[in-house]
Amino acid sequence: MADLADRVVIVSGVGPGLGRETALVAAREGGKVVLAARTESNLAAVAAEIGAAGGKAVYRRTDITNAADRKALVDLAVEQFGRVDALILVAAYDAIFGGIAATENFDDWRQAMEVNLYSSLDLVKCALPALQESGGSIVFVSSQTQHHPPPLALQAAYAATKGAMTGALRHVAHEIGPLGVRINEVAPGWMLGPPVEGYVQHLANERGISYEAMMGEMTGHMPLRRMATDGEVAEVLVFFASPRSSGMTGQTLLVNAGEVVH
């Protein structure tokens, strides 16, 4: 039997990378998928892809920072499919690079915290009554960068938001566990998909070397000698959303080709 047979899964942040892969894996495993993102064309494309493969998906253009949108997303899942069994939060603001020395003010940090922490936690709060009814699962996308900053791409702001999310998760696990609801997170390292492929090519161009040579430098110290892919991270997210992880809550699992042991 498929891991998510007849279960309803909300996936936020459905773009061309990890969000799309997560939605496709959830649908492949029998889930009825509710898609959310700010870009409607991305949502329509992924919903069509799921439908063409025989799956079920609905979508709603959603700004996760908007309280009305958050509530409407959960309402859509209940109206269309009658329940919510899992919430996978892929949506994130991760466009701030560097440390604090070059930071003129912390407005961007506040925006990142608004998206990655406050809005994500409020979406959890909105979905909690439905998740309690189903004995459901919440899955955060964290990041290895909070545990092991990569010298090539410092992201102090992003790491700070993900560190805050991890702290909240461990407390929330105790709060909602007695309600029958689980919460876990996946912390990817370098994750091979459209954004990282573009970044590796950018570094290669700056260095005047090939894409393959640049990739070799970045992955040569990893036990698998490659990056985990968006699709591989999506598989773990869906594992946490499924009954196969029913004995796990409050956990952080790194998916990183072995780069860092945690």
Brief write-up:
The protein has 262 residues and is of the alpha/beta class.
Can you give a write-up of this model?
- The protein has 262 residues and is α/β, with parallel strands linked by helices.
- It is built from 8 helices and 9 strands.
- The strands form 2 sheets. A 7-stranded parallel β-sheet has the order 3-2-1-4-5-6-9, with helices on both faces. The chain has a two-stranded parallel ribbon with strand order 7-8.
- Helix 1 packs parallel to helix 2, helix 4 packs parallel to helix 5 and helix 6 (194-207) crosses helix 7 (211-219).
- The radius of gyration is 18 Å and the shape is globular.
- It starts with 7 loop residues before the first strand and ends in a 7-residue tail after the last strand.
- 43% of the residues are buried.
- The model has no long low-confidence stretch (mean pLDDT 95).
Strand order of the largest sheet: 3-2-1-4-5-6-9
Give the overall average pLDDT: 95
Total helix count? 8
Helix content: 40-55%
Structural class: alpha/beta
Number of strands: 9
Radius of gyration: 18 Å
Estimate what percentage of residues fall within beta strands.
15-25%
Low-confidence runs: none
Give the name of the CATH architecture of the largest domain: 3-Layer(aba) Sandwich
Q: How many separate domains? A: 2
Name of the CATH superfamily of the largest domain: NAD(P)-binding Rossmann-like Domain
Order of helices and strands: EHEHEHEHEHEEHHEHE
| CATH fold-level topology of the largest domain | Rossmann fold
CATH class of the largest domain: Alpha Beta
- Outline: globular
Biggest β-sheet, characterized? 7 strands, parallel
* Cα distance spanning the termini: 32 Å
